[in-house]
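Table S5 (text form). Sequence records supplied for joint modeling of the four-component complex.
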Amino acid sequence: MMKTDSTKDTSIERFPRPAVAVDLVIFTVLDTDLKILLIQRGQAPHEGDWALPGGFVRVGDGVIEQGESVEEAAHRELEEETGLPRGAAYLEQLYTFGDPYRDPRMRVISIAWYALVRPDLAPLVTAGSDAAAASWCSLSELPPLAFDHNHIVQTAIERIRGKIDYAPVAFELVPPTFTVAELRQVFEAIHATAYDRGNFRRRFKRMLDNGLIEQAPGKRQTASKPARVYRFNRRH
Amino acid sequence: MMKTDSTKDTSIERFPRPAVAVDLVIFTVLDTDLKILLIQRGQAPHEGDWALPGGFVRVGDGVIEQGESVEEAAHRELEEETGLPRGAAYLEQLYTFGDPYRDPRMRVISIAWYALVRPDLAPLVTAGSDAAAASWCSLSELPPLAFDHNHIVQTAIERIRGKIDYAPVAFELVPPTFTVAELRQVFEAIHATAYDRGNFRRRFKRMLDNGLIEQAPGKRQTASKPARVYRFNRRH
DNA sequence: TCAAAAGTGTTTCTCGTACACCCATGT
DNA sequence: ACATGGGTGTACGAGAAACACTTTTGA
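The corresponding structure-token record, covering 472 residues in total, follows.
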């Protein structure tokens, strides 16, 4: 007996299909605190509740036009929801959530993504066209969210915590030039623990030696002694 | 102006929807070689070509019945394609591939998963009901696959390579009891590099001290000196 | 001059890597 | 007896962790 494979039979074209959405967990670090962008819903269900920004993937009307890729959908939604231009934020696919009844109206499968927005760009987001309904929310005071969005946020936090130590994603959460302390605060915000200043400095030094970061001109004004500033080196 | 969010408007229910499939990259290690399970397609498009096993997510016909979860769909397909009972293999979501025209007939978004099958169970798979069209294929001799399946396989390999060193997934690719050398060969197959025997032994010893693995009764017969056997300890 | 934050030094432990060597067993 | 693979020892270096210390600045 031959088993079904992903394109067994063209009659499958008539089978019921789910709606497919992208949802975004958009992180930034403000005031040494990890925050995500929430949207207040204007329609039922969950009207008035907070939720993750997102939208449906644009699918063409059939064979001739198949629409946008899911990556394109995620980038487009990120741009629409934040007002930031493409490439201003780091975007990565997280997980696809597809439990039945996660949306009471119909079957919706949601491809979740997370994005990292630099703190110097974060204020521009709330000042954007959707200001009234969008807000940066500290994880410590996260409200109950619509649908399974709390679960999605939880998954995103676990992902970023696991990734920050071995992938250069922390640089997406600091300004273009940054001090040792500023980068350390990003790590502390994400891991929600304090780091030894001296030890982190040595770790920073290794990144400097590897060429991952380099010193930038100028100094950062602080409450006391001005600090040297560095920049991320995308090559090597 | 209010922005679109994932459930803005119920009129969205009438928008065109994509078909949603699950595709599986099923790994095992046979003869110190990392292999994946391929299916030979019986229908167009790509008839006769090799492809990943998979199938469509079952979506109910609307509001009342919304069908199975995507996790359920992946487990079901794994069971159907391999004949192995639930829980016999490790299964984890990989990435969702959704480029337009990846299937020429219609818009298909595929949620890819990878599975790890123990080598003692792998022979049962090819002996299953779909034997004529299923085959374990060495990665070194992977043929061109249908659709974007080569790309999916590539992504799966990168994932498992990155994960084996910090997550206890190697134990899903050895028999219930295993020797130090057997576990080492799994690492070597996945990373495609040789490991120092002495050093790997020390690493193994640490896992033993941590309680991650424990000694099992009996010895494994080899070409020379019989080796001690161990088992994975799922607790702690 | 004092607090605050930048920046340095020291010590200890764990772990990865390289490499040499001994031991038990089947042929 | 000898090859094969199991099992052990040693030495070096990178890096995580704990903690004490010095230096530079603004107020």
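Note: Residues 17-163 of chain A form a domain with the Nucleoside Triphosphate Pyrophosphohydrolase fold (CATH 3.90.79.10).
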